[in-house]
Amino acid sequence: MRAWHGTAQLPTGSPQQRALLAALLLRDGRTATASELIDALWGEEPPSQALAAVRTYASRLRKVLPSGVLVSESGGYSIQVADGALDLARAEDLWAAAEKARGVGDPGQARTLMNQALDLWDGEPLAGVPGPYAETQRARLDEWRLQLIESRLDMDLEVGCHAEAVSELTALTAAHPLRERLRELLMLALYRSGRQAEALAVYADTHRLLADELGVDPRPGLKELQQRILQADPALAEPSAPSPEPTAKLVRPAQLPATVPDFTGRAAFVDELSDILSAAEGRVMAVSALAGIGGVGKTTLAVHVAHVARTHFPDGQLYVDLQGAGSRAAEPETVLGAFLRALGTADSAIPDSLEERAALYRSILDGRRVLVLLDNARDAAQVRPLLPGMEGCAALVTSRVRMVDLAGAHLVDLDVMSPEEALLLFTRIVGEERVTSEREAALDVVAACGFLPLAIRIAASRLAARRTWTVSTLAAKLADERRRLDELQAGDLAVKATFELGYGQLEPPQARAFRLLGLADGPDLSLAAAAAVLDLSLEDTEDLLESLVDTSLVESAAPGRYRYHDLVRLYARACAERDEQPPGERDAAMSRLLDFYLASAARVYAIERPGDRTVDHLEVTERAGLDFEDGTKAFDWLHAEASCILACVQQSLGRTELRRAVDLLLAAKDLAESGAISHRYETATRAACAAATAAGDALAEGRARVSLAQVLNKVGRFCDASAELKLAAALATGSRDPWTTGNALNEQGIVNNCIDRPAVSETHLREAIDAFRADGNRHSEASALCNLSRALLAMGRVHKSIDLARQAITIYTDLGVTFRLANAKYTLGLALSDANRHADALGQLTDALQIFVENRQRLWEGTTHYRIAQVELADGRAARAAQHAEQALAIGCVGGEWMRANVLTLLGRSLADLAQLDRAKACWREALAILEEARAPEAARVRNLLDPTTVT
């Protein structure tokens, strides 16, 4: 128990004095009498001078605490503190807020609040505070903390974090083996992680433990969960998102266009806008402005909302299409004339000027409740004279332009439909029977439409009108990107025509930017990347992009990032082919983008790997890249641009850009080790190998095959990696590329380490070390020394292994390397573990883990958890070993399924030591299936573990 005044910690005195302080604090400001305090401090056997002692303690506390905190009243004492000053009170408030958030259907916010409450715990409550009252409160707070953890874990499962929850639940069930709620949550987390056998094994372990320890059966809830798992009850699957609320039945009002009978989705927008409109009575006019790309459904939504809200506007609803997307937008005075006539004004009474018409319009609406729907507006200047401006009236505005300059407007940016909404709209138009029989093809169709309502409506209408077509027929037609926009037209509806209206209003610099930026294949573009494409300054590029955002032709994905809707991108590329002059400018723009990514990624590589000469072997770029303040910002940039970089590689595999594209893979190799995007990196690398082979470029092919082998090694496909490296080595002989020569040898050493051929590995690695030294590449030399350390360790040469790992650490330290230092510490940790220096090994492995986490190397993070688990188990700490093994499973490891089997084997051994034999065997059976499929030698060891005669 600690107290602070500001940032200064206050002395709380002797144990009994702290007990008095605790007793007063936990009464939440209520007065405690002297006798109550005596009972709290000493119970049934107080000392003879107990009352005097209480007064002494109170006097001392009053001198320490700020004035007015400790109050004497009614023969007792109380403590008065400000709201939030007591950590327990803050925890209770956070818990209450979490329960409230959960009650209104926001489990993510509830989980965040609950974690904040749990973060307030710092060790054992009231540690070292004596007395029966403190003992009772300590037990109460410990129990409450467990209840909070159980609630938070329950929320984890609600939001789909079941894999992450398994690790924590494994440790908690080991610490509290008789707590059935934790066992129930662990069973559910395992089941949702696809580990049904382990979930059932947890029940078996629990049943046996309760019978042995207490002579009772598990509680009914646990039994029911076991039966539901056995029956594969679909209700146990992850909680699904709530279905959209049904929309109100539509009716046809005065000037409003008819709503579509198959209006679908948009429930949140309907509710939001309806609430704003319905609240217009008695307040200043409500204005809502909807903006979005052409075809996104602005008019459909606005008309539907207007119908829903019409009962709140008994004096009428006005509607006009302002033709703002076309070349001849409606004039405000013309629109006002039509509105005045609709409101009963005779032609002879309608004035001529815009100002006079607007004034009369507002006068007529005074005291009336009218809804005005202004559809397809050009800009705020066109809209302002048409706003009612009176209490009780409201206006809905739709436009392709975000009306940030329309004072007081509630702005709504309308995005495309969700996949579920899109499929539902398609089904309502085509018919449930046709879609149900070809659901996958239907999903392909709505995805090809980019979930854009207009495109979906056109595609569905075409299919509905052609009874001989199947859904697959339509999906095949839309699969051809070059023909897709031509396919998306039916009658007077056409996606291309909708986009053409917006494009036709662009100024020449805007149109050029729209065309060229649409050429890039990445999911979005950063401002700096866009500036490279356009060959403009950042300031000029931002001005152009923001103007395109205002027209809704480009979306602002995040501050400083921009993206196209898929169909808009296809249209932009069609415009580039048609309009861009000279034609070579398209290739030049993509070359500038490749230069930008290569130069920037090379700087990231150099920051992360000082002394690595890889950057000296890369192709020279004509355009400079970004400068980074430090390694963290460099690494953040690389991961933020990962998808764009890999897309650029695959887009740049023509003959003139081939070597730069391959070198971009080398410079961005960290992406191969991050787990989350390693698959996309592999895809890009395979494409580079094929392109280099077709081009007959031995240097590019050799580098690409080494990069591919590095990926294959990470996922445990060692035979495939070895084959790629043999090809790379042969290519390096012809190209005389020092990068390929050294790295192919180093990777061969890694492969042979993994397949238990340490002697072969040693040969390759000593040659790699020689090659790196000849190239002056000390960084890569250190990497090879680490791998050689592993090879010698496998051959029992422990002391030499430790020496080589320390040499690598020295090199990395001399070079100022932090990132790769983790690999050397990891290697040293393994060697020290084999030398039975477990404490030293844990220190090195823990250091390595922290570096891997900081650098987002998820696969290495998981692998290091596995190695820590090995050391913990060797030291007899089975519960901690199981916890680290679970984290390794949740994160993933270098080595793919083969390493997963090793982790499962270790987890099973840890669980067996915790007397959870059924779950242990479930782990071993899963591991055995993986190893037998891979024909791995480790399978024999797992079979021995499953033999009942070997399990103790």
How would you sum up this structure, described in words?
The protein has 952 residues and is mainly alpha-helical. It is built from 44 helices and 15 strands. Helix 35 runs antiparallel to helix 36, helix 37 (798-815) packs antiparallel against helix 38 (821-834) and helix 42 (896-913) packs antiparallel against helix 43. It starts with a strand and ends in a 6-residue tail after the last helix.
List the helices and strands and how they pair.
Blueprint: E1 3-5, E2 8-10, H1 15-25, E3 32-33, H2 34-42, H3 50-64, E4 70-73, E5 76-79, H4 87-103, H5 107-119, H6 132-158, H7 162-175, H8 180-192, H9 196-213, H10 220-230, H11 267-278, E6 286-291, H12 298-309, E7 317-321, H13 332-342, H14 354-365, E8 371-377, H15 380-383, E9 394-399, E10 410-413, H16 419-430, H17 432-437, H18 439-448, H19 453-464, H20 471-479, H21 481-487, E11 489-490, E12 493-494, H22 495-503, H23 508-517, E13 525-526, H24 527-534, H25 538-550, E14 555-558, E15 561-563, H26 566-579, H27 584-608, H28 631-640, H29 642-651, H30 658-667, H31 678-695, H32 698-714, H33 718-735, H34 738-754, H35 758-774, H36 778-794, H37 798-815, H38 821-834, H39 838-854, H40 858-874, H41 878-891, H42 896-913, H43 917-934, H44 939-946
Parallel strand pairs: 6-9, 6-10, 7-8, 8-9
Antiparallel strand pairs: 1-2, 3-5, 4-5, 11-12, 13-15, 14-15
